[in-house]
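agent: user wants the full assembly modeled, not chains individually. Plan: 1) parse entity lines 2) check alphabet per entity 3) run joint structure prediction 4) return tokens. Steps 1-2 passed, two entities, 726 residues total. Proceeding.
--- entities ---
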Amino acid sequence: MIDYKGVDFGTILRRYDIEAQNETTPEAVAKKMLPADPVLKNVAECVLYMKFKDVGPATAEALKTHKALDIINNGLVVGMECVAKLYAEHIYYLPEIMMAAKTMEIGIALAEKQIPGGRETKGTVVMHAAEGDPHDIGKNIAAVMMRSSGYEIIDMGKDVAVVDVVAKVKEVKPIMVTGTALMTTTMTAFPRAAEILVKDGISLPFMAAGGAVNRDFAESFDLGIYSEKAPQTPPIADKIIAGYDWKRIRDEWESIVGGE
Amino acid sequence: MAVTRYTKMAYGSADEMVFGTAKQPVSYGFGIKVGAGRVIPELNYAPRPGSEKDPAKLRKEYVDYISKDVLNRAVTLGFPDVQLETEWVSQMGNPKMSTPVVEGQKEICEKFHEEYGINCAVRHTIPDQREAEEGLRTGMGGSHAYPEALFRAAEVACESGADVLSCETMGGKELADYAVTNGDITAFLFGVGYLGSIDMEYVWSEFVDIAKKNKAVAGGDTNCSGANVSMFMAGGYLDNDVQRTFSAVTRAISAARTLVAWECGAAGPDKDCGYEGPIAKAIAGKPCAQEGKNCQCAHADLQGNLMAQVCDLWSNESVEYHPEFGGSSVQCWLGSLGYEVSLMNTAIATGQDKTLRDLYMISDRARGPEGYVLAYDNAYKIGQAIAENGNDLYLRAKAAGLTAAKIIKGGYEGKEIQLTNKQLDVLNAVIKELEALPEETDKFTEYCAKKYADLVPNFNMKNYGL
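--- prediction returned ---
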């Protein structure tokens, strides 16, 4: 082997990841966000530090003194908001999001039992991976992020036939339907489904996403909107709740996914 | 078909390995000899959306446009060899869609070979659409009957004229997806290293028989559905989903799985997207296809030069067929591949192959942990760990992962590769976790079967005959 001892790799490549690493601790970021109430803080910290074994007892303890909705909105959800902030600042990564979401869901399930009729979600979203496409990891990640943001998710899985997607939309009347595709020959299922929906008089945003899909394709058919990465899905859904239709989402896409 | 495990290394040392030469070269198609002293460009492509609508359109796209364009450009630029790779779109599971494509590509290769003398062949990579929730094995039911369709596709490909049969099998994917998104290295080891290897044996024993019966070459597989998901989610310097130390360890584990196709009798070359190729080649001596710097149309990874170090076929991964300024996309990327291959073959012809190999490797050695463990000297060490435990699917995969993790740790401590604090934390956690696992396969299986029963959707031991 050629002797490379003493080679200055800094002249060959630049490790931007090393230079840009955020050395702030989760504690420092969360300090400004956590609730002052010690009971709610304890619940929020269970989510923040992914203590899925502790979140049940902490929620049960909180239910003795606090209303269930208060615990959810000002404890569990705040903990998840801290996690989202840490993810955005490259202190937490995907596994922390997944584990924190799981922890939050345990707490919510327990607290929800105390709410007559269950907790109201922000809205229902139907998610699927395209017909003929077995790749659904992106959809699964987005589903976790959407649930963490307060949406009810109907996950139809992968390789879902166009007719089944259309039928489900008609059945549950979601605020949005999403489809992911990793292959260019399967993503053509999305305009086919959207065309049937339009023909049947249904107008809702049809989010097209996944490795094969780009914004140009997603916006090439009526109803189509785009999501480049899973974390962009909740802010787009929030705008739909706020009254945006698919055309306005397209028009303001950059500012929506940029968090403005 | 009997399975013969690798317990010894094909190469006596890492330094013996170089691009263009494999211990066991393979010949097929119209004059193609892989691993026999020169590197061959392998061009992969995807048809335009809409071309999958009917058999005539699809055949025209693959044969009259794509294949003809590639072969024409190869002759135009003076490339002596070219291999085409058709990764079947899902619609080709229907023989009415696939048969005309396979037959048509064979015919056009023969025509160009006869007219110009160019060496050419087609690899057909059939789709594995099996889903864990419906069953991975034949007869397990499921509305789609995907396991039956998988073997039927292999037969259609080989009967219709495929030169090389390949596949990107999905065994272990349900656990791999969970492992990558949750940072759970044990789940990856169990899903890919152990169960995935069992599934490979199930699938490739059959593929090898089908290929032999039809005088096709059973090439090999890749852990695209696991280690590549891990690698691409780990991404580059701006990405923040998966730690690159984690993905590097998953890559090493995947080598133990990819090896199984060859243990079942497949001859190589394995699949281009199997970045674990250098490890598998070090153990088995069979030719490997790789991709890197000339596959930017499909993948951006952190070891674009390094991956050329010991390749036998050099690939572009895939490009959608469309026009570019320099011709069609397949022509442009063939040019990119072909000139790189020409450089490698010039290095071989002038006795400079090991120098070029080392330059490829050194340029990416410190770019990221995955490239670091795949550098041929480190890949060889991981290969040794697998071979030393070759008869036990679990122990060899664990040894691969642990060896890779310790190689990275050593490189970090020796100041050869930098890691972020987070990458280092995850690396230390991976080492600790792997070291704490049982030494006995039965205990490990029992532990994992219980642990992941409720955690991993669609996990079913029956899919693996257990």
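agent: reporting back. Chain A is about 50% helix and 10% strand. Strands of chain A lie at 124-129, 152-155, 176-180, 206-209, 224-226.
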